Amino acid sequence: MPYTMRQPALGIPAPSLEIVLGLLAWTVGAAGLASGFGTVLVALGLFLTAYLWIVRRRNRTLAVTLHPERKRRMQRLILIGVVGIVLLPSILALVGYGELSTAVSAALVAVLLIMASTVLEERSLVAVGGVVLVIAALGAFLALNSAGTGGSQPVIGLGAGLVLWVAALRRLGILDDVARRHNVRLPRVR
Q: How does residue 61 score in pLDDT terms, banded at 50, 70 and 90?
């Protein structure tokens, strides 16, 4: 009789995606600002990310166990996102539209968030992806109507980071706790 051992159920904690993407977007946005103010914003972003990560680690009931096919789909989406974010700015710079690199990268992340909503079965990712897509479109408009990425990069990065962190706060239940304390009703999104 062979000795078999059950593997522990490995899951993906639900709001990890929003926390990490929020930090990356926030850092990109802060990089477009003056060095002193940008550094302060990066420090605040790191502090908020650390807080959210600690809350996420304490609440292990939010873990989602993915079926092997869904896990492959999620890995494929992450791979497409990483390759796209690395290659798209270079390709855009080659054809003379380098100022759109931040906007196109944010749009790619937004579309991948919308696609990830079916894999993780989380409808709120559609709303988050839609808002990030609108921010990317606004940033593209600003980039095309100004010289360089100086005006659009902070708008896209800080805006997308804020939206992603608010989504993480909602999925972690922190917004519900704050609303309950201050007797405020928040709209429900499933």
A: low
31: tokens are 């990089």
Question: What is the rounded average pLDDT of the residues 86-108?
Answer: 92
**Is the Cα torsion angle 121, 19, 158, 76 positive or negative in sign?**
negative
The answer to whether position 146 is within a domain reads yes
Domain count, the chain: 1
Q: How many C-beta atoms lie closer than 10 Å to residue 151's C-beta?
A: 16
Tell me if 29 sits within 8 A of 160, measured CB to CB: yes
Residue 107 lies in a domain: yes
169 domain residue, yes or no:
yes
Q: Tell me, yes or no, whether 186 lies in a domain.
A: no
Q: What is the pTM of this model?
A: 0.84
Say how many C-beta atoms besides its own lie within 10 A of residue 71's C-beta: 14
| Residue 138 burial (CB count, 10 A) | 16
Helices then strands (H, E): number in the chain? Answer: 7, 2
- In DSSP terms, which residues pair with 64 in a beta bridge? 12
Write down the residue that tokens 């992806």 correspond to: 129
Determine whether 65 is exposed, middle or buried from the number of CB atoms within 10 Å of its CB (0-12, 13-18, 19+): exposed
Domain range enclosing 120: 13-181
Least confident span in 4-18, 72-86, 150-164: 4-18
Contact criterion met (CB below 8 Å) for 113 and 132: yes
